[in-house]
Specification:
Oligomer: single chain
Helix content: 25-40%
Shape: globular
Order of helices and strands: HHEEEH
Number of helices: 3
Radius of gyration: 15 Å
Distance between the termini: 37 Å
Strand order of the largest sheet: 1-2-3
Structural class: alpha+beta
Number of domains: 1
Strand content: 15-25%
Length: 73
């Protein structure tokens, strides 16, 4: 399952060297989970941190931003 969401799509897109892996020089958009998704698929809902374009975003901060946006909508 992990390969189907990481390296396989990157290889399909011809970007296997820069996507889908955690190595120096690769694009670094990551979801960090609080629980192991290999133990249960439900653990995919335990996002604790998002790393996007090199910026770390704790889930609490993202939830607060979404809440603020929804309050103004």
């Amino acid at each position: 399952m992990l390969r189907s969401t990481t390296t396989a799509p990157a290889e399909y897109l011809g970007r296997g060297e820069t996507m889908g892996r955690i190595v120096p020089g690769a694009d670094a958009d990551l979801l960090l989970l609080a629980a192991d998704p290999l133990q249960s698929v439900e653990n995919l809902a335990t996002v604790s941190t998002v790393v996007r374009a090199g910026h770390v975003h704790p889930i609490d901060a993202l939830d607060a931003r979404v809440g603020a946006l929804l309050a103004t909508a």
